[in-house]
Amino acid sequence: MTWVHAPGPKADLRASQEAHARALRKLGPLPKLPSTKDMLRLYETMMRIRAFEDRAWKAARKGEGLPIHPSAGHEAIAVGVCSLLTRRDKVISNHRPFGHFIAKGGSLRALMAELFGKATGVCKGLGGEMFLSEPSIGFVLSSMMVGSGMTLATGVGLALKMANSKSVAVCFFGDAASTNGAFHEALTMASIYKVPVLFVCENNGYSTNSPAMEYMPTGMVVDRAREYGFPAVAVDGTDVLAVREATQRALWHIAHNRTPYFIEALVSRIGPHKQILVDSRDEDRKTYARMRDPIVKFRGSLVAEGILTPGQDASIRKSLDKQVANAVSFARRGASLPESELSRYLYVNP
Predict the structure, then answer these.
(1) Which helix (H) or strand (E) holds 264?
(2) Could you give the domains of the chain?
């Protein structure tokens, strides 16, 4: 027997096709696929972040630098987003800023010197990890105040809009920050004033060592974000290409509609919340986080596709080892800010 599909009404088919076309136009053009060179650059930047943090961790254990909030496991988010930004675009980070800073083009030498408390650091050794600022690359600041970056990003976005700038403000924050009142304030104001802000929630499922189910009313932050009147999507935060594609769509939407956009990137934190804190997560959770390592995942894909060879990988690792070693040497050689200079950077109410 030959099966024949009965044709539906032509009018219904035409209406369906037109609706589909409208939906595609609303999403914007298909994201431009990264070239082989682009993918190798993404991989190298992710490796640079990991290499820097590993060395900073060792330096802190020796008492040479400050303890850090490691971003191991989060690298695909920082790189996937920042790889599409220009220096004119503004980034607002949180207490886990190294990935964002390095992916935005920040200097490893100046960053390491900052952790060593040297005058050659990003902020002359006065800001440390959680108070970084490098205007020359569009890195507005990092902040230890949970949730504060969201309201600041809305303000930066409003300033960009008032200046008729084509740039965007990008705010990185964690899932726990979404339970802060600043989340509601920032998203409400951003929506009302239609500011060019991309909110990026890095949801690793924990607030320090507390599981999300203990402090979040819903498992997904994006469910709440959608209620503020602008697009909100979830993406696999361990897949750098998926994050990059979501960011392309977000930037297109912001450019053509000049309204905010929200991305929730689901990820697993490999290390502890902070170097000096005990990681009380159970061993199964830690193992699961290591299994989702975005660098291992991306490396496997690149090797499988013949884009990355063992020789190239070894060359990248060797180059990064030299870069990080150079950063440590630079930090060690630097001098601390003279005591006479310290008062210049203090605000005193007369």
Answers:
(1) strand 261-266
(2) 34-328 (3.40.50.970)
